[in-house]
Amino acid sequence: MKPDITEFRKHQDAYKSQIDDIQGKLQIVRQKISNASANGPAHERRKALFKELDEHKSNQAGNRASRDKVLERVRVLHESTQRKVKDLQSSKSKIPFSSVGDIDSRIDHLNTSIESGQLRLADEKRSLQEITNLRRQRKLVDGFAQQQHAIDADRAQVEALKAHLDDPEHKALAAKSEAISKGLNETRAEMDHAQASKQTLFDQRNKLQSDLDAVYAEKRSHSETHREGMDAYYAKVNEDKARRAQRAKEEREAENAQKAKLHAEQLREDAKLPAFEPLIQDCQTLIDQFGRIGGVHVVHNHSDNAEGNQGIQGANTPLAQHNIRQVDNQVPGGTLLKKKEDDDDAYFVGGGKSKKKERGQKKTPAKATSEDKVHVPLATLTALIGLSIPPPKSYSDIESTISSLEIKKAWYEANQEKQTKENIDKAEKEIEKILSKNKKEQNE
């Protein structure tokens, strides 16, 4: 059973209360013994009072000279304050801004005008020059607060000195002399009383110290008994925890072994799939697509490559939309995407002008050469980029694109068996690592 911590703390608090009480009494007795000695606190206070009395007498003699010095200091500070005020007013009159916030607002306004790009070059230069000047003025305005702070400090010092001069100093000196004399009498009486009862104080100190040691011994014994009980309790808790941990470890190892086995089986199944098959299907789909558009006869090596193709929706799209595998969800940098408001603008690979750029111009009949440009849908463009084949810019480039696709497809087909074997070998090595790692974890 776990020892009752509440009961333990209750007993410990009782011991601590006894210790604090005895220590308080012992401290009082020790202080009395110290006061009775020649170098005790009472003696030291008496020496300090005598020293203070000597200084007080010296201050009374030099009181008049000290007053003259204070008056001179007041005059110097007053003149210095007047000069600082004039300098500050002169500096403020040269700058049209009264605060740092006003300057920052003006700088922000100028920066906004420059960044908008609506200013002429000459106006922009003038704005930049004004910003430079404003930043210089900002440093000056920022320093005004420090100058004003120095002026206020001087004025406060002057007022303090004047208040000191107005005080009736002779009354203060007399009161201080009386306080010092009273302190000397008290320390003398304290030292005399302590010296008379010095032996009695020693006896009291020894008895209190003995009582304190006894209470400390009882407190340590009680703490040791409680600690032994807690150690026995937590030893039992740790033993139970170790048994549960061992059982959980065995269950976890069995679960991990099953997961490793399933993972190995999945790796083997994936590795046995023909390599490059999705890429070969993409190549054939693109070959069929561009073959229909360019009027090129395409020989089909696989009868099912073109299955699932669908026509593009929209009258203005010359290419058909096919079920092309998405190589990458992210469109490479540099690819022009249509906004929702630009649905009528076609994307041409070949540098053709969009309707958006021609907005506001008079409509003219389209030239014959514009009909040669090929509109490549985004899915087709993404598939070509994934195969590292440049898209055709015009109908005359379609045969070249088909040729590149056929070469790419032929290479995939030629290396399919070899790559599949490599995938199987790689999967077996990975399976071996997984099983070895799982076995090592079980042995740890």
UniProtKB/TrEMBL annotation:
GO biological process: intracellular mRNA localization
Any coiled-coil regions, as ranges: 235-270, 417-444
A GO CC annotation given for this chain: ribonucleoprotein complex
Domain of life of the source: Eukaryota
UniProt keyword annotations, A-Z: Coiled coil
Keyword Lipoprotein belongs to the record: no
Alphabetical list of InterPro entries matching this protein: Bfr1
Biased composition (Basic residues): 353-365
GO molecular function: mRNA binding
Region feature (Disordered): 334-371
PANTHER family, A to Z: LEBERCILIN DOMAIN-CONTAINING PROTEIN (PTHR31027:SF2), NUCLEAR SEGREGATION PROTEIN BFR1 (PTHR31027)
Protein name, UniProt field: Nuclear segregation protein BFR1
